[in-house]
Amino acid sequence: MKLAIRGGAPIRKKPFPPYKTIGKEEKRAVMEVLDSGVLSNYLGTWSEEFYGGPRVRKLEREWADYFGVKHAVSVNSATSGLYAAVGAAGAGPGDEVIVSPYSMSASATGALVYGAIPVFADIGDDIFCITPQSIRNCITPYTKAIIVVDLFGHPADMDEIMEIATTHHLLVIEDAAQAPGALYRGRFAGTLAHMGVFSLNYHKTIHCGEGGVVVTNDDRLAERLQLIRNHGEVVVKDKGTEDLVNLIGFNYRMTEIEAAIGREQLRKLERLLVPRIEAADYLSERLRSLPGIIPPVVRPDVRHGYYVYALRYDTDRIGIPRGQFVSALKAEGIPMVEGYVEPIYLEPAYQWRVGFGRDGFPFTFPSYRGQVNYDRGLCQVTERMHYRELMYTNVCHAGVEECDLRDVVDAFIKVFENIDELKG
Ligand SMILES: Cc1ncc(COP(=O)(O)O)c(C=O)c1O
Could you read off the pLDDT of 153-193 as tens digits, one per residue? Predict the structure, then answer.
């Protein structure tokens, strides 16, 4: 069969099914909020409403119970959740926060927002999370916290990372935005560190438009998160809070509408996650035999969350650059993306070292005594994954059927069978 990129008929002629998870339950829940007339019930004063409206609080209780943690603090995005977590951790000017370079930018910007310096540890080339050894290499006398990302839904090596943190007295924030429902040694991703952050934005396994939840078993951190979420500075006096570091607050409050949707979505989490895993397993079983295609690794004792299905591509074995292979797949009608996001340290804020103001704060802050490096080549595995090896598709989700997945496999096989045509 002639390759579509050479003018042949594509394997896939129609779009893949969209990810649609909003049903009558969510609609009913939203209508109840609208009928109540109270779309958000927060008050930025020391009162019961300081903690939000009834649905916000129910979502938090249900989230905490589901994930088996003491506290769940809802926020209006995982970005806000990460910022609040960095604030709660007490990181500030002069401190360093170790973070993954291969993630959505917000995994690192929380440190900058609090005037701390993100230090990028490299990832491993199997599960794409920062490795314990790369974290060790980044620890300095200025390190305050570590932000670990469970990239694409696979939990990082959390036990070893928590041991490192204990040894060095560091706080760990687990960015589980992409990993709700993923499991690590029988425990939920997001609950494996001092704080864990989930996202409820539209692209995630469960969503409510925009939203996030931070979980913790630590009463003090939970209190700090709640204060940062809702203009903390105005209530600390009445509340009797004594440690004021980083408690200048924001408005990170979730509305009643989002909470109502979030509650329904949480009930569906398992039902929405299992089809992702089944679809990913289907692809992995069939793509594994193609020489040079490396399906996602799943460590023993882990349940992958499959935010996306990310594979590795071996150019030397396959004989054409990844870009050409991906273009051929796309021409066959398969949504496939080269790399993920550019390594964060290559973004202008880091390259130019401009955070806030005109003097390069926090990078130039006099009480910062470290020496951070953001040069190209800093995280070699990350750069190799991004620029040469990694590619992903987002077709593994509920609503996609075997015939859809078969098209993905057939397209890979077709490109392989005609690879010589693409060479030279
Ligand atoms: C790993 C990771 N962290 C944080 C975020 C930020 O999530 P939100 O859009 O809810 O702010 C995302 C969103 O894509 C993400 O993938």
Answer: 999 999 999 999 999 999 999 999 999 999 999 999 999 99
Residue found by looking up tokens 């273009």 in the block: 327
Cα(142)–Cα(145) distance, rounded to whole angstroms?
Answer: 9
Q: Residue 387 corresponds to which amino acid? A: Y
Using the 8-state DSSP alphabet, how is residue 196 labeled?
Answer: E
Of 162, 64, 147, the closest CA to residue 111 belongs to 147
For the chain, list the domains and their CATH numbers.
4-21+269-340+384-422 (3.90.1150.10), 24-265 (3.40.640.10)
- Residue 381's contacts (CB-CB under 8 Å, 6 or more residues apart) are 122, 123, 124, 125
CA angle 408-273-299, nearest 5°? Answer: 80
175 CB near ligand 1 (under 6 Å): yes
Q: Is 177 in the pocket of ligand 1 (CB under 6 A)?
A: yes
Give percent above pLDDT 90 in the chain: 100
Residue in 129, 147, 199, 341 to alter for ligand 1 test, most ligand atoms within 8 A of Cβ: 199
Rounded Cα distance, 229 and 337, in Å? 35
- Residue-wise pLDDT tens digits, 192-224: 999 999 999 999 999 999 999 999 999 999 999
Helix (H) or strand (E) holding 256: helix 256-287
